[in-house]
Specification:
Oligomer: single chain
Low-confidence stretches: 10-20
Shape: globular
CATH architecture of the largest domain: Alpha-Beta Barrel
CATH class of the largest domain: Alpha Beta
Helix content: 40-55%
Strand order of the largest sheet: 1-8-7-6-5
Number of domains: 2
Radius of gyration: 20 Å
Distance between the termini: 25 Å
Mean pLDDT: 86
CATH superfamily of the largest domain: Queuine tRNA-ribosyltransferase-like
Largest sheet: 5 strands, parallel
Length: 306
């Protein structure tokens, strides 16, 4: 499985010296799968070219770049993305982009399909997107024509509802009898680690690394703990906070971070959000390796997920 780290360009720019942060993540952390938003880097940043991401083309750093249209973000700001400009942007930056998605139309499955066909007519091969709540006829149409499909519209859905939907879609359309995937499936905005582990995705993207860090938490992989509140600027009286855990649990967590990467202390993680970003990225890189080596199989053996 590939886990594309999303929201990357915005966060690295925010550090004040985006280039050096990019190099650190690429060369030191070996962060080679990124998702960038056309809406963010081209429209918000005034048609910024991919040339500012030159390291993506360097043979020593084989970065796989997934370009999303950013339609959902644009929709929330009541901004319409021009499809011809999106097509031209992809063509102008084709040497940098490994994968790119259709310009989807939020809440309009027919409009999304029309954009898919229009982009294909203009010489592109975008990954189509089937959204939560869309009529399944559109998924069946994509399955006839494509070998790489994205599932979208999953952000902010209640976990139990999303779980029922994913179970049904994977069982009816996307898996073989042995639980393996029939084709490549991408999960847009897949922030749930449990869902990453449940289905045989080919790829997903997630902003969890940065959102978790900004809320003062870090991912870890220690027994019952996979996320711990650690910031000293929040409510340290919360029972889920590191400083409220038992001494044995604190020691296990402290040792985990000391041995992670080049080593991190609890104190710097509590103080520095950039350090929290780093350990969260490492967590997802380790998860990516684990799920690549141990790909999930989805065989529905129960009537409900929860």
């Amino acid at each position: 499985m590939k886990i594309y780290i999303a929201s990357f360009s915005n966060q690295s720019k925010a550090y004040g010296n985006g280039y050096h942060q990019e190099v650190f993540y690429t060369e030191q952390l070996k962060l080679n799968n990124r998702l960038l938003s056309h809406y963010a880097i081209s429209i918000i940043r005034h048609k910024e070219s991919m040339e500012s991401y030159n390291f993506y083309k360097e043979p020593s750093n084989p970065v796989s770049l997934f370009l999303d249209s950013g339609a959902y973000s644009a929709f929330t700001q009541n901004i319409e993305i021009n499809i011809d400009e999106y097509i031209q942007y992809i063509k102008d930056n084709k040497d940098c982009i490994s994968q790119y998605a259709v310009l989807d139309v939020i809440g309009d499955a027919e409009g999304t399909l029309k954009n898919q066909l229009y982009m294909e007519e203009n010489g592109l091969n975008p990954i189509p997107c089937f959204h939560y709540g869309d009529d399944e006829m559109y998924l069946r149409e994509y399955l006839k024509r494509n070998n790489y499909i994205a599932l979208g519209g999953m952000v902010k859905r209640p976990k139990n509802q999303l779980g029922y939907w994913l179970d049904e879609i994977w069982e009816k359309y996307l898996t073989n009898r042995d639980g393996t995937a029939k084709l490549k499936i991408h999960g847009f905005g897949m922030t749930s680690v449990s869902f990453m582990k449940r289905y045989p995705w080919y790829s997903v993207d997630s902003t969890s690394w940065v959102l978790t860090g900004r809320f003062g938490c870090v991912y870890c992989d220690i027994g019952d703990y996979n996320k711990v509140a650690i910031s000293n600027k929040g409510n340290i009286e919360n029972s889920a906070h590191y400083y409220q855990l038992g001494k044995n649990s604190q020691e296990h967590i402290r040792e985990y971070f000391i041995n992670l990467g080049e080593g991190y202390t609890i104190e710097e993680l509590a103080e520095d959000y950039q350090k929290r970003d780093e350990v969260n990225i490492i967590y997802f890189l380790n998860l990516e390796k684990y799920l690549t080596d141990n790909p999930p199989r989805f065989i529905q053996t129960q009537t409900t997920l929860f």
